[in-house]
Inverse folding.
């Protein structure tokens, strides 16, 4: 009997482009959550399977670019971590293709869409573009609303405009229509399954070249855009500040209040851009140096005060400390046991967080008014989860913090 072939296809695109609808239609499953607004319903990477002839097909649903609640860096990190993990570890999965979805009725065809396409292209690399199928959605909506001719114009623009799909089509990418039927979805999938698997550029960079995410081509693009936005908002803040001073001098309190609100909004946007840049790499050199110095300082202070505090701590907290530390040690042991699944930069974060918490705890940072705080292990897990994200925490053995973005792979492999 001929062995069934396993095929992995990623479904990508902006929020609201119809990724989850496509997967639900193809798999004939109600388990895929679908959004009916521009709010994203796909928070993490998830896998959905179906059988077609001699193929076992896994469709990978990904968070949308232009996500409602998450920055481009967070979305990139989530997708990159999944691609990293599945290629780095047995059976070393490579995608057979990517279905990139775009609503044909979406009027937001410029700005962030162009940035996302640039990031997508650099995530793929040049050669893998031949396995990309650009798929348009929303044809039924366009026909019902009498905008079919406009939709056809949009399709031609996507095909021929050098700012959109034209350069990638020249390198082998193809186009398809998803017409909201299962037969349409399966036809698109069948156009991919017989192709040879591809190694994406970001997988090569992260795994084979052991680069940090910020040093990859896609990461660099996002970082530069966030840097540009940060500088723009800083300039906007300075301008508003000047206008506020003039309004204050003119005693125009109403205008001053409006400017204050605008300034706070710009400050929020600037801070978001800064956080987005920082999240691309877990430890910058100066931050790592600062944390290391703080930890060493805590250790030296602990040694100086050790004799004074040792007896008091032992008598006061012994029973509670043993109980708490045993639970904490189990957590740390589990984290370290799975650490080999991570990239070097992630392992450094793991060890840094453990050392930072242990140093703070040993010095007395884990006690308040003579009573030891509970939940040391919880504090460690929450701190790691905020930095590393759902895929990495799943690898470390704690998928329950976010759901289980990689758990469905066990049955697939």
């Amino acid at each position: 009997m001929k062995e069934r072939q396993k095929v992995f296809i990623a479904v990508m695109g902006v929020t609201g482009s119809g990724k989850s609808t496509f997967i639900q239609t193809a798999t004939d499953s109600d388990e895929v959550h679908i959004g009916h607004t521009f709010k994203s319903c796909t928070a993490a990477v998830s896998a959905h399977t179906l059988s077609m002839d001699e193929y076992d097909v896994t469709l990978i649903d990904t968070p949308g670019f232009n996500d409602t609640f998450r920055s481009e860096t967070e979305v990139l990190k989530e997708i990159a971590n999944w691609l990293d993990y599945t290629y780095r570890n047995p059976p070393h999965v490579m995608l057979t293709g990517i279905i990139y979805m775009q609503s044909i009725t979406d009027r937001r065809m410029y700005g962030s869409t162009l940035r996302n396409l640039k990031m997508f292209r650099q995530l793929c690399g040049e050669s893998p573009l031949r396995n990309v199928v650009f798929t348009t959605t929303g044809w039924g909506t366009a026909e019902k609303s009498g905008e079919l001719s406009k939709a056809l114009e949009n399709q031609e623009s996507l095909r021929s405009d050098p700012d959109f799909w034209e350069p990638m089509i020249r390198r082998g990418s193809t186009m398809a229509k998803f017409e909201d039927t299962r037969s349409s979805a399966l036809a698109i999938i069948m156009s991919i399954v017989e192709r040879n698997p591809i190694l994406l550029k970001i997988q090569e960079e992260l795994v084979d070249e052991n680069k940090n995410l910020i040093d990859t081509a896609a990461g660099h693009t996002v970082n530069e855009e966030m840097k540009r936005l940060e500088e723009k908002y800083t300039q906007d803040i300075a301008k508003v500040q000047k206008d506020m001073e003039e309004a204050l001098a003119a005693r125009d309190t109403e205008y001053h209040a409006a400017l204050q609100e605008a300034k706070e909004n710009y400050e929020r946007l600037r801070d978001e851009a800064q956080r987005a840049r920082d999240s691309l790499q877990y430890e910058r050199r100066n931050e790592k140096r600062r944390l290391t110095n703080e930890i060493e300082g805590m250790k030296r202070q602990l040694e100086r005060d050790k004799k004074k505090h040792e007896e008091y701590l032992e008598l006061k907290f012994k029973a509670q400390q043993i109980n708490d530390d045993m639970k904490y040690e189990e957590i740390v042991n589990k984290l370290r046991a799975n650490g080999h699944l991570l990239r070097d930069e992630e392992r450094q974060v793991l060890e840094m967080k453990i050392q930072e918490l242990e140093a703070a705890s040993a010095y007395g940072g884990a006690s308040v008014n003579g009573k030891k705080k509970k939940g040391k292990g919880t504090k460690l897990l929450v701190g790691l989860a905020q930095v590393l994200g759902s895929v990495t925490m799943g690898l470390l053995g704690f998928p329950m913090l976010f759901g289980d973005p990689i758990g469905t792979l066990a049955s697939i492999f």
Observations:
- The CA atoms of residues 96 and 197 lie 4 Å apart.
- The chain is about 60% helix and 10% strand.
- Strands lie at 5-13, 46-52, 55-61, 97-103, 132-137, 174-177, 367-368, 371-372.
- The longest strand covers residues 5-13.
